Amino acid sequence: MSREEGIRTLRGAGYELVMYWHYGSMEGPEDPHDMNIDIEIRTRQGRFSATVFTLQNVATLLARWRTTGERPNTYFQVADAVIVDRPITEELLRTVAEEAVSTGAVEHLQRLDDTDPDGGSA
User: Fold this and answer.
1) 88 DSSP assignment
2) Which partner for 53 in 10, 36, 88, 106 could form a disulfide, CB atoms 3.0-4.6 Å apart?
3) Could you give the angle at the alpha carbon of 105 between the alpha carbons of 102 and 111, nearest 5°?
4) Is-contact 96 80, C-beta < 8 A?
5) Rounded to whole angstroms, how far apart are CA atoms 78 and 114?
6) Other residues' Cβ atoms within 10 Å of the Cβ of residue 58
7) Domain edges within the chain
8) pTM
């Protein structure tokens, strides 16, 4: 799937999904099997953020951190992490948002301050 670098917004039932696509390196777009992406889910209850990681990306980051000496490098800890076992696509991100909203799990994601000048609410 071809994507342009930038921000893309989709509307769903009871939510708005903002995806922050980016290129991973000088070589071009990231591999959807080995990447992470920041998302924001806006609902009437507020704005929530998460970073969606593939399982492969978690392994890649840990290996990189061991090589560079960054810490921690024996475990993976990210406060707003959502880990998926499939390649990251727009459709997968929509499914993540829909499930988070429909189950109420969105309330467990990182809540954003509604006074943030870059955001808004659905």
Assistant:
1) -
2) 36
3) 120
4) no
5) 22
6) 16
7) 6-112
8) 0.84
